[in-house]
Amino acid sequence: MQQIIIHVDMDAFFASVEMRDHPELRGKPLIIGSLPHERGVVATCSYEARKFGVHSAMNIKEAYRRCPQGIYMHPDFYKYKAVSDQLHEIWNTYAAASQTIALDEAYLDVTETAKTWERARQIARTIKRRTWDELGLTCSVGLAYSKTAAKTASEERKPNGYFEIPTAEAFVSLILDRDVRVLYTVGAKTAEKLHAAGIHTVRDMQVRADDVIRLCGKHGRWLTQLAFGRDERKVTPYRPEDAKSIGREVTFQQDVSDYAVLQDVLILLAFCVEYRAKRVGLQGRGITLKLTYADMKQITRSHLIAQTDSAVTIYQETAKQLEQVQHRPVRLIGAGLYNLTGEAEERQLSFDDMLPENLHSDADMRRQMLAGLHERYGLDFAGNLEKIYHYEVLHKTVEYMRRYRRT
To answer: Scanning 41, 91, 207, 263, which has its CA 20 to 30 A from the CA of 301?
Structure first.
């Protein structure tokens, strides 16, 4: 039986949620991300802002240059996550399998639940209606025979669109003379490489399949399959343990040369990483420190450790790594866990574990870390640590620490 797959993609999700909650923002160029006077990028923006050439991942200074009349807001990720949970609850009602791609996007396998194309069409339209009626948000929906075709279909009529691609022949007919970028797995660098070789359209990819494979290797072989509409991938439910890493980072509004401040920022990042790891039931066997210097040079320092999800361990290990890097002004700092697993690792205590100096509990160390922040900055997170997990609170706190560290 041929697969029947629905791809659902929210329209300008963060911005749409804010416009729903604040009607006075509707119809205006709304840009979610950093503020114009800050360092950072655009997370997303309304379609009104996109008319000025603003787009996701654009430097916020460039966004402001293009759209100075825009309304700029910090994102509220906790609100967006809560709305996302409501969205996926609606969508998953109709799917035998659901693959979450992002907060606002998913593939739904309705092959068994729908059984016929007509019933799948009804489900797709019901998803659109319920998303609007129950949450006041619009989405674009694609119904197709494969994942690639379903995603292409959902993009075809954005925003608030609906489109169907029932067969491989219909898919190829739709995209044959479009630029290679129409295949969403063709990124900017791959497109540049293909264009340089005179391969501009999907038709070119079909005619010069051997050249595509020669230029792009294994990925090129996959692209040539897509160019002919061949994609038999299944909708695979996302599992938290499939994530490659969990991390948190902050960009400073001015470069930081005081590495004592960076050490203290790592405390907050460690608690954020711990929270995210515990929320999805994962632990890591590796710790990563990430730095971007003032000249935009990026470095990472990683090493393996005993399995953990503890903020204490994350902080201690990243702090050691920080001591070993070249001390130059820093623009961005991040901490993370990798080599993730959902299975707790049992370990027998050694003699060293029983020494008095090693008997301090994790809770004791957590209290010491937080007490240090209180002593050096007057910050009090005791009993209210969850505040720091909020994007805007974290960034405001870090900026306060950068400016007002007590000696």
So the answer is: 41
